[in-house]
Protein 1
Amino acid sequence: MNSACPLCSASEIQAFCSDKRRAYFQCQQCCLVFADRTTLLTAQQEKAQYDLHQNQLDDPAYRKFLSRLSLPLLSTLTPEQHTGLDFGCGPGPLLAQMLSEAGKKMQVWDPFYAPEPHALQQKYHFVSCTEAIEHFINPAKEWSLWLDLLWPEGVLALMTKRYTEQSSFNNWHYKNDPTHISFFHQRTFEFLAKRDNFALHFPADDVVIFKKRNT
């Protein structure tokens, strides 16, 4: 039973679609679509899937892919905003390396590959998260953590593919990855930005940048 949204905790949940593996539900408040939480992989199965990824630090194609986020992020940051955390960095933290090359002081964290508690015990000018938020079981937990990690006027840069309509979701290859369980619409990010006082920018179809407003 999926009785509440794992992002905004709203109780207005509707069936969205289903396939041979699992059912999907949509929150009527924030538009998050999420897989039936009774069908998730174990942590061991999940890590086994990630171990198959071939994201090498010397791969120019991977560097180009990550530049879709790094370039607009760097253009958003001021010179004084120099400390950053790459959250969910995976086994090959190339984005952190790219941002370090641009003069930023980077930390990394990942539940499987870099579970360093000290990285989550300090403040940052920015947090980046590429192709990881779709794996979160309870994205409200990570979102709340990010709010605590950011300094005032801090920047949060995310990369994840966004769904558009229900009809296209049914045949969307992105949902077929068994580790992809939380799916975001543009309206989902607009909801979060309005609720938590962020300016919002969509530099690409799979990139979103939040900047904390002065309170």
Protein 2
Amino acid sequence: MWAYGCGVISSGVPASGRWPLVIAGILLAGPLICATSQAVNDWYDRDVDAINEPNRPIPSGRLPGRWGFGIALGWTALSLLVASALGPWGLGAAVLGLALAWAYSAPPLRLKRNGWWGNAAVGACYEGLPWFTGAAVMAAARPDWRVLVLAALYSVGAHGIMTLNDFKSVEGDRRMGIASLPASLGVDKAARLACVVMIVPQFAVIAMLAAMGQPVHAAFVALLLFAQFVLMVPLLENPRERAPWYNATGTSLYVIGMLVAAFALRQTVLEVP
């Protein structure tokens, strides 16, 4: 939802008169497509969750039978129905996002079995794809190339965020043969890798904003990145225990930087005669 909003802002297109597209897109990105991905993941991860989080609805039996699978199918259909109202760009992005959502969790692909591929798919769907979609829907055309670059950079960084998210399920992943990065590389090495993957794209964003003639926005993103550095020190001391804490603090700073970058791009687009 946040990334779609960043796409809307970065497009430079006024929202006045286009609020239905904005609201429908935000609902599509969050309560529909993202929720679909969670429903699909809950169904196909029910055996892993029985080990890691047995109180969740499916392994605990509160959601009996094949209700979990039915919800995933129904929400997929509803997502496509809403996406059809956003024009060809919105519908195309929704189809791609839903395809990746199913490919991430469901066999035969089950991308989550490999932490590199799975995290890349989720990072793209959580950050880059909705950002691109918001800009494309507003402009009714392919977005400015700088939109694509910023969306891609923040998608790469989200790969690290997803690595931190996997710390909570290391035991179950190892027992079920899921090669998440914490399970395959070890917790400490995966934590250091996640930090590097989050940091490097933000340096590129800062350089890009400065080159676009937006030094104030670049400085603000740099300040947010410095704060993330500070928070990474205690994270790396105890990654498993502090990953949820960092996701609530450092990751929040990361996504605020996305919004700052979106406003910088909007300012750049509006300054072009």
Protein 3
Amino acid sequence: MLSAESAELVRRTLPVVGAALDEITARFYDTMFAEHPDLLDGMFNRGNQANGEQRRALAGSIAGFARALLDHPDERPDALLSRIAHKHVAVGVTDDQYVIVHKYLFGAMTEVLGDALTPDVAAAWDEVYWLMAGALIAAEARLRAVAGIQDGDDVWRTWTVVERRQETPDAVSFLLRPTAGPAPLPPARPGQYVSVRVRMPDGLHQLRQYTLSGGTGGDTRRITVKRVREPGAPEGEVSTLLHDTVDVGAELTLSAPFGDVVPGPGDTPLLLVSAGIGITPMAAVLHDLVDSGSQRPVLALHADRSPRTHALGEEVAGLIDRLPRARGVVWYEDPGDSDARPGRMDLTGLDIPADTEVLMCGPLPFMRAVRADLLAAGISPRSIHYEVFGPDLWLPQDA
């Protein structure tokens, strides 16, 4: 809990600090990377650095955490903390790095805010930072314990590609088996993701997260990678490398699985909503439901540009057919000769019970629109869970 004195100072200065956070985080990253270039080798996604998403996500999480402390002083923003903790453990963040971040973040605040950052104000925001850092360090320790990770290196394991399948012109699936290492494998739950660490042509390592699209229950893992077509931009460098150079027999370095957007227990109705490559966690969930003989009511909704771009479409349709209480609806912007519904996803006329649990994955504008429709239909916001590819720019302002 934030002390009463600090809470008052944070409340009074939140508008000023919040307005400057984008500039603060930009200066923070520039200074930290200049003095710790090693962090760019296998830790930070330079695609997200280039497009500004990482900076905006950090600013949003700090402001969101501060607002939560002020608005609900007796509660912790567990959804925000859980999302960040899973991302951190998946890239190998260590406890000592919070000290490094603190040094450069508060140095940037001093430079940007100047005289507005009085000693009392700085102390209040310092309290916010360490409350957030302490909660994350504890959450990350719990996640590492569940995954059997003793230190930062234990998060990584080498896997061999045993099958490569071209799903669409822009999406390819890799089926992997562990090359070596201690047993058992870290547990995987449907809906979780892994980090893939690769060495780029310039010698630096880069990480990208890919949702497991299958293989969560045995000794294999499957990821389905969409090529990001941004010529020359770092956003697409890893997916391009995987598409162009990785074939059967190649080895990839994967993290243990993490992510908190997984179906809950019970037999309440389950709604799976996806668009584009957001279908990957839904495929894993459906595989798990089939393997467990689930009788749960399931409605799977998917939107895509056309049948040609619909990755895993036939596989997902086959899984739905194997579930006794499941059905699927597909929308294509260009349906061609298919029997899919034309245009964008529209929930009108669909029977969605009020106690439905919802899992969503896709572009943020798509998920925002669907969430608004679900709320209007009487679905509780606590029942709607979503996964994003990359830094979460939604949760801090929407939690």
Protein 4
Amino acid sequence: MAKDAIPSPVINPVSTGYRRYALWVLLIIYTLNFLDRQVVNILAEPIKRDLGLADWQLGMMTGLAFAVFYTVLGIPIARMAETKNRPFIIGASVAAWSAFTVLCGFTQNFWQLILARIGVGVGEAGCTPPAHSLITDYVPKEKRASAIAFYSIGTPLGTLAGMAMGGLIADAYGWRVAFMVAGAPGVLFALVAAFTLVEPRKQMAAEMAARARSQISFAAALAVLATKKTFWLVALAASIKAFIGYGHAPFTASFFFRNHGPELAQLAAMFGLKSAGFLGLALGLVGGTAGMIGAWLGGVFADRLGAKDLRAYVTVPAIASLITIPIYIAAVSHPAPMTAIGLLAINALLATLWYGPVYATAQSIVDPALRATASAVLLLIINLIGLGLGPLAVGLLSDVLAGHVGLGEAQGVRWALIVSATLGLAAFALFWAARNSIREEMVA
């Protein structure tokens, strides 16, 4: 073993077979998390037409309204998850966000939809911090990035399902029904999480008793995190990646409708579909599949390369962040829609490589008693900047370029996407800077 490789822990609270089951359950739950979160993106144009919204309102609805409550509530829920039953917390969260997703289908105006999306954010706040903490307890340390990357596949998989299912159902029955169908499966998996996931603290009683006795305040936890230079560098880098990804998501379908409308209609007719259904399937299947492969590969690369040099945990996402910029610009600049979708698939593969390495790094540089808190703080930074500001900023820039600059809606959204993509340079610089501290902090 290399001198800075990560050793395995002594305690293995669950069997290998059960570990696989639990990871699959958590993956499905996280897929539903993103399905309910992202289905709104393929529905953005029909919602805009039906409710008479501007692009900035789409950005507010898909980003800031959701993100503020999602990120803020993540902290107290994570503190609860440090000592309480994590499967029950996850189950209650799934039930809450699923109910509010269904409620989105009954809204009649912008502000009602905003309140329903806030409810989705409140529910989803209780998913990932306790899930990351559970996975970290279930899995040996040297396999942690791969396990968290497997869980993170739920991001592209849920986006795939949301785009494909949302587009098809919206074409057939309208956007309201799409919300209702998206929220329905959560009721079942809320029960599965609460009653079949094992709380390993029962098998780790001695360790958890010591952990409970030594639990520190949130202020003290932040003071510990403040000393972890790597944490803040990867958190800021990941937040920029999220700003780009979340900022692009609500406007990708709009970009294609506005710039490739006639071509999409012709392609859809060849398959007996309408434009929204065809585009949802194309973006979901091509981009979603590539994103799943990228999320999985990111964890595999980080664990395998990290066994020799821990800097791989930040080197992999750094290089990927740099390469995505010209590929994305080429995609939204190409005149052929199917070629553009193909280039976006390559972009999706590279843009998801950071999931496993970043979350595993955050879990591996803190004491076990701070893992859920570290995950929540990381998610607060990523989602407040990325999810909260990304869609709103891209929407505002699109409106300014379309109206005040005079580019029109089609070119306005194109250039808003291009400008925001160049922020990947800052993500690259931050990930690369983390190479200077990660080995010392992760080993410690």
